[in-house]
């Protein structure tokens, strides 16, 4: 990891941390460090999405894009949502994009009626997110309420207050 990537990642993480500064909404898992083979890693709580794990490649933002992992949604539904997040990140290749991607995903979730504990809205969110991101693939029964309930229960067991 070069010095410019470290500086840019650290600045973006600092901005995200300031936005999600409330207790339990931001957790830095790995700081960006020069000479490191991988980039930073952190978790952000974004109601109504729940908890997102964000992993940055070493050369981000100059090269590569963040990997977004929605910890609340499991199975094929998670793949659809992650592809949508990645496509949003692709729209900003070469520049910092995490805040823009999170903001857009939250907008879609809210317009789909997804609430922090709203299991029934997960399929609606995924359909809306799929069409927003350009993935025309229909998300039908990919996220059954039982999947959402399991994910919600997992978040509760982990002590996460945002899921």
TrEMBL record:
Domain RWD: 11-112
InterPro entries reported for this sequence: RWD_dom, UBQ-conjugating_enzyme/RWD
Pfam families (UniProt xref): RWD
Protein name: Tri1 protein
Gene: tri1
């Amino acid at each position: 990891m070069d010095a410019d990537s470290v500086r840019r990642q650290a600045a973006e993480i600092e901005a995200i941390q300031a936005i999600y500064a409330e207790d339990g909404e931001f957790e830095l898992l790995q700081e960006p460090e020069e000479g490191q083979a991988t980039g930073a890693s952190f978790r952000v709580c974004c109601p109504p999405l729940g908890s997102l794990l964000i992993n940055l490649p070493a050369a981000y933002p100059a090269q590569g894009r963040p990997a977004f992992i929605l910890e609340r949604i499991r199975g094929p539904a998670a793949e659809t949502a992650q592809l949508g997040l990645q496509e949003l990140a692709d729209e900003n290749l070469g520049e910092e994009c995490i805040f823009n991607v999170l903001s857009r995903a939250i907008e879609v979730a809210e317009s789909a009626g997804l609430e922090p504990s709203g299991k029934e809205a997960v399929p609606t969110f995924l359909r809306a997110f799929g069409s927003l991101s350009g993935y025309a693939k229909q998300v039908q029964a990919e996220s059954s309420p039982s999947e959402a309930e399991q994910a919600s229960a997992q978040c509760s067991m982990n002590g996460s207050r945002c899921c």
